[in-house]
Design brief:
globular; mainly alpha; single chain
Length: about 230
């Protein structure tokens, strides 16, 4: 989606008017649903064996935050697809509805801070420090595979953290001004990047970072260190 923005500098709902782009958004929605479900599985069943220590519980809380983040992106993506269909009513804007409630701005602000801290800054630190290597079975990877996994993981996770941080900042801004127009989700974050000096370059860099994260996730599907009951760690 970010690369589409960089090419057109228009919101994703506009991009989704063509059939192939709508199909691409549906494919993205399927991927987001899968990743959100994976976050729930990591919290409930603990296949990565984080345990119940304070450090392990903190990591599992991060998985829960990730699941919620991807679920919200899934809802936003489905909304983009729905806006492109003339017979579908305009999707409900949860931010506007929540801001209209008593203490709604506080809730929106709290959600934004969770995005910034849990889904944004924490991911930037994780990518920068390379702690994600703990979840990879490095012994089964060749030297080139390990090298590329670290490169793609660092770049992709940091890029994802930056985008998530911007989403959280937009939510906090909407809460401070009690203005739902400031909370536009992923497309708002991408447009905020596009409107900066050298915005298209920044947006293209964010898009490439997310592509790198997707490639790294595919590598994780092959080499992630899994712990299954009754079996030795893979």
């Amino acid at each position: 989606m970010a690369l589409l923005f960089a090419a057109s500098s228009t919101p994703c709902p506009v991009c989704s008017r063509s059939n192939w782009r709508r199909a691409l958004l549906v494919a993205i929605a399927v991927g987001l649903a899968g990743y959100s479900l994976w976050g729930v599985i990591r919290v409930v069943f603990d296949p990565l064996h984080k345990g119940h220590t304070p450090r392990g519980l903190a990591k599992r809380f991060g998985f829960a935050t990730s699941a919620l983040a991807y679920a919200s992106l899934l809802v936003a993506t489905l909304a983009y697809v729905a806006r492109a269909l003339p017979h579908v009513a305009k999707p409900y804007d949860w931010t506007a509805g929540l801001l209209a409630k008593p203490y709604g701005a506080w809730f929106v602000g709290a959600i934004g801070l969770c995005w910034i801290g849990g889904a944004g800054i924490a991911e930037i630190v994780r990518g920068w420090r390379g702690t994600f290597r703990e979840d990879l079975d490095l012994g089964r990877m060749g030297p080139a595979e390990r090298r590329w996994a670290m490169r793609l993981g660092r770049f992709g996770i940091v890029a994802r953290g930056v985008v998530f941080t911007i989403v959280g900042m937009l939510l906090v801004g909407a809460a401070l001004h009690a203005n739902p127009q400031h909370a536009n989700g992923m497309d708002g974050a991408l447009l905020a990047l596009a409107r900066q000096p050298f915005g298209r370059l920044l947006l293209a860099a964010a898009g490439l970072g997310l592509v790198a994260f997707g490639t790294f996730s595919a590598m994780c599907a092959r080499w992630m260190r899994m712990h299954i009951a009754g079996r030795a760690p893979a």
